[in-house]
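ARCHIVE CARD
Drawer: 12
Card no.: 0347
Subject: one protein chain, sequence and derived structure
Cross-reference: see card 0346
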Amino acid sequence: MDCGTTLVKYVLFIFNTIVSIIGIVAICYGVIVLNSVNAVEIDGTVHFPPQAIVPVGLITIGSIVVLISFCGCCGAIRENVTETMCYAVFMFILLILQSVILVLLWTNKEKISDAMGQVIESAWERESREAGVFEAIQKSLKCCGVNGVVDYGAILKLPPPSCCENDSCITANFYGGCRRKFIDLVTGSTDNAKYFSLGLIAVELIGFIFACCLANNIRNYKRRNIY
């Protein structure tokens, strides 16, 4: 096999090894963040607050990246056209999906904010039926009620210690509402995700091009050997 093809093969292998490491780091970071999210156990069932979506998303994306990169490594090092093309196809699909998600994130910021606000309001409505459901959100976000401590007054309940700094409630140290804090958290995470996705798309595009080049070179090399 010519030097160019060999170079592409090892570049693709090293590239996917690095991407796999990044995917593993994303999974580990997601697990750490998920462990830091306060969960509440109600009737034997563990409930995670809405902000657990972010680390779960990281773990999911990291797992997909590791699997695809592993396929790319195998295809490159074994000089297998089928595996390399499968990797290229997966990369292409991932590129399309990420591009669509990126466009949606960029063009639907207000809708996303409204949807996140609705998540908090739904959790608050559930709190009236199952006491303690909202507790995990308040502990994780350091917030109180949907719009503030007044929400507890509206339902004739005393605010829990999680509504206050150091679990010591006096008028001056009540946290703000969870709706605003959750929207700010998701908006910040979304903004970071946009730029991260742009970088990831560029990296994946490079991987896709290298995979196509390698598969084509291997196919041509084998075809020439037949003759």
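Annotation on reverse: The helical segments are 3-36, 53-78, 81-107, 109-127, 135-141, 150-154, 178-226. The mean pLDDT is 78.
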